[in-house]
């Protein structure tokens, strides 16, 4: 794909006609045609950034080579729909209407299949999203024992989600709260920490369901906030507590043999005012000059920043608010006990991510975004 004027025009046509249809609601006044044109043609359309445009043309070449007739237009579907609506139901055109309706459904299927194919070409799947196993950690934050109770509620919510997906759910470790300190137990329900392994294979379905456990649950990483009257409270006041959720894909064990004589170990003790460098271990691999620094420092999970919250569970108002989607839902029971609402939120987050990635491509052509 040489850098010629006609190829630049083809690129613009592709951006505006194909991606605009797929992006849907994300194409608004904030992403104007002039912005896209400037990002492709340069300032004022007078100069062309050869490096960027050549990179984009090579990347989009295999898509632009698709014959025009393989990209069914929405106008064709509109015409079929008009034929159906315009037919007089009192006339003997039932057969024509049935044929037109069948054609409309077939073209819809073709259009959706092509849009999915374009999305797979433009937005490659992260290999980690196909990972079937995930390690989830829950840390009780601000709120004391009430935060521990909420951590237990979240664990049950993810258990219900795993059951709905027919996934395996295993509690690897949990630490419960006592009055004065956290101690291992299986009788208490106020958890200060819990480590869970969830395993679920990708399916042949499209969208978020084609991902494994990590690809679907990665959206749950962050600070979850709860607002409710604690069962331990005697004043009947609403308290706010937080729980941090960590999500990591699980990988198989890899054996690496490194001779001990290739390693250099250095130990460091606290130095300077306040002892900031606390118990550091510095490891160097002499041949590759790779460095590994490990340090022991106090955990600050108890002071989780509430401004980092991703979702709020408001029990008095029976409302869940996801701050990334800027949207709220009612019925906490449906969300936490049945996990139906959670599935819908995860699906919405996935679609929002797809739209945002498409928007970045429309404006910058960044194929890595």
Write the layout of secondary structure elements.
Elements: H1 5-23, H2 33-41, H3 50-64, H4 74-86, H5 94-122, E1 133-140, H6 145-165, E2 168-177, E3 182-183, E4 191-199, H7 213-217, E5 222-228, E6 239-249, E7 263-268, E8 280-285, E9 290-295, E10 309-314, E11 319-322, E12 327-330, H8 332-337, H9 340-364
Parallel strand pairs: 5-10
Antiparallel strand pairs: 1-4, 1-6, 2-3, 2-4, 5-6, 7-8, 8-9, 10-11, 11-12
Helix pairs in contact: 1-2, 1-3, 4-5
Can you list the strand order of the major beta sheet?
3-2-4-1-6-5-10-11-12
Q: What's the end-to-end separation, in Å?
A: 23 Å
Q: What is the helix content?
A: 25-40%
Portion of residues in beta strands equals: 15-25%
The secondary-structure class comes to: alpha+beta
How confident overall, as mean pLDDT? 71
**What is the gyration radius calculated from CA atoms?**
27 Å
Order of helices and strands: HHHHHEHEEEHEEEEEEEEHH
Keywords: Methylation
Pfam families: PCRF (PF03462)
InterPro entries: PCRF, Pep_chain_release_fac_I_sf, Prokaryotic/Mito_RF
Description:
There is one protein chain. This protein is 38% helix and 21% strand. The protein has helices at 5-23, 33-41, 50-64, 74-86, 94-122, 145-165, 213-217, 332-337, 340-364, and strands at 133-140, 168-177, 182-183, 191-199, 222-228, 239-249, 263-268, 280-285, 290-295, 309-314, 319-322, 327-330. Strands 3-2-4-1-6-5-10-11-12 form a 9-stranded mixed sheet. The two termini are 23 Å apart. Pfam families: PCRF. Keywords: Methylation.
């Amino acid at each position: 794909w040489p850098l010629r004027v006609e190829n630049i025009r083809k690129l613009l046509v592709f951006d505006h006609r194909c991606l605009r249809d797929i992006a849907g609601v994300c194409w608004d006044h904030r992403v104007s045609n002039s912005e896209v044109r400037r990002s492709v043609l340069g300032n004022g359309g007078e100069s062309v950034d050869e490096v960027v445009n050549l990179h984009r043309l090579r990347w989009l070449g295999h898509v632009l080579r698709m014959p025009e007739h393989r990209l069914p237009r929405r106008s064709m579907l509109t015409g079929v729909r008009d034929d159906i609506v315009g037919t007089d139901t009192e006339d003997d055109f039932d057969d024509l209407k049935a044929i037109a309706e069948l054609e409309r459904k077939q073209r819809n299927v073709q259009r959706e299949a092509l849009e999915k194919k374009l999305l797979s070409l433009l937005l490659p799947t992260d290999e980690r999203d196909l990972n079937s196993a995930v390690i989830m950690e829950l840390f009780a934050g601000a709120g004391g024992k009430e935060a521990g109770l909420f951590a237990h509620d979240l664990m049950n919510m993810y258990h219900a989600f795993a059951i709905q997906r027919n996934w395996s759910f295993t509690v690897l470790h949990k630490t419960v709260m006592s009055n004065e300190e956290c101690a291992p137990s299986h009788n208490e329900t106020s958890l200060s920490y819990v480590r869970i392994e969830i395993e679920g294979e990708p399916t042949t379905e499209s969208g978020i369901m084609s991902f494994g456990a990590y690809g679907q649950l990665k959206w749950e990483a962050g600070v979850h906030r709860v607002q409710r009257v604690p069962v331990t409270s005697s004043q009947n006041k609403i308290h706010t507590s937080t729980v941090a959720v960590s999500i990591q894909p699980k990988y198989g064990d890899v054996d690496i043999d490194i001779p001990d004589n290739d390693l250099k170990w250095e130990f460091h003790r606290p130095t300077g005012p306040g002892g900031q460098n606390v118990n550091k271990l510095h490891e160097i691999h002499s041949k590759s000059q790779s460095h590994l620094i490990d340090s022991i420092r106090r955990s600050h999970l108890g002071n989780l920043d509430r401004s980092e919250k991703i979702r709020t569970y408001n029990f008095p108002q029976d409302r869940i608010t996801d701050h990334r989607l800027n949207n709220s839902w009612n019925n906490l029971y449906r969300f936490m006990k049945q996990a139906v609402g959670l599935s819908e939120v995860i699906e919405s987050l996935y679609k929002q991510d797809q739209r945002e990635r498409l928007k970045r491509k429309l404006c910058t052509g960044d194929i890595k975004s």
